[in-house]
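Q: I'm writing up a methods section and want to include an example of the input and output format. Could you take the sequence below and give the corresponding predicted structure tokens, formatted cleanly so I can copy it straight into the document?
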Amino acid sequence: MIAIAKVQDSQTESKLTYEKFVNLRLTDGRYEFVNGEVVKVVNTRQHEDVVAFVYKKFDREIDRLNLDLVVRQNVSIRTIASSDKQSRVPDLSVIDKQFWQSNPADYSPLQKPIQLAVEVTSTNWDDDYIDKFSEYQSLGIPEYWIVDYLAIASREFLGNPKIPTVFVNLLDENGKYQTTRFTGDDKINSRTFPEIDLTAAAILNI
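A: Here is the clean output for your methods example:
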């Protein structure tokens, strides 16, 4: 995702509180609440194509196996960073169906960990690889995918030469992510969708 604007409290010209952010009910785009600031994000068309492709794959797998899950875009989830409440909007969220339907009128960020989060990396790649990695891990999201279709992250993460990669991070028994990289024709191994027929190339070559 690409940050394009920051919003402050117009009355005090100071950073907003999390509670004020929740009550803003912003409806003119996608927003995250990061370090006391409201950040509006937009995506390129190719980014949206990658998200749409993975969405369809997940949705079909849920239908095929009649899983008690839903996949959604633009879902805000509450995280914690440096003891401060934050709100993130994964590109894709896979959520327990019963929990999702339990309060259909609610607009506030989810406070229960979702099952799987997907972030498709853009120019602010360090958010996905570092900040969101830490926040999603601390929140206890069992599975977190980073789809770096542009191979835009540093060599520290991608190696040399840098090639487009899908990273699947799975939470272990100690609450830490264990990361597996998938490139080319590697078949992606997912804990949430163990039978899914999906290769890295199918996602990365959109």
